[in-house]
Amino acid sequence: MNGEARRAKLLALLRQSHEPRSGSELARELGVSRQVIVQDMALLRARTDLEILSTYRGYLLGRDAAPCRRVFKVRHSAADTRRELQAIVDLGGRVEDVFVFHKVYGVVRGALRIASRREIDAFLERLQESSSEPLMRITDDFHYHTVAADSEEILDAVEARLGELGLLAPLREYEPEDVKGR
What we know:
Elements: H1 3-16, H2 23-30, H3 34-47, E1 52-55, E2 58-61, E3 68-75, H4 81-90, E4 94-102, E5 106-114, H5 117-129, E6 142-149, H6 152-164, H7 177-180
Antiparallel strand pairs: 1-2, 3-6, 4-5, 4-6
Helix pairs in contact: 2-3, 4-5
GO molecular function, one term: metal ion binding
Keywords: Metal-binding, Nickel
Binding site for Ni(2+): 76, 84, 143, 145
């Protein structure tokens, strides 16, 4: 299989998957080295307008599947992270990212792509094993999540549940419009 055919197959594999695919897994499936996959991803990013994300769990196409998105501003302790994420995914939402608005640094964002309790467990385990603090620590626990879902009704239910749990935080006038996301 030549490079063009391999990259076409690689895109087809990413389009078929709603879960991240590791470089090693893709390399085995296509019969090449992981380094070839890394190079192919760089070429695909340069030659297409597709958003190809590289997460800690592997590669995936960005902005796929879910047609609706909403940004929620929340505040809670690190101990409530599991409860927050479960409230979102249990109602059918997918947590695309976490970001903070820092008055000096601006928006600082990290990709999450969490859609299940199993993925919450993996994320929290990875966070606990690292020496890093959650991003929300730099803004006194205030942070935002972009949540994707199949309908506005799901996003309304997520918003209501986060409110019931006391996790929603009020938006402030100094927050830029693109952070508000509503």
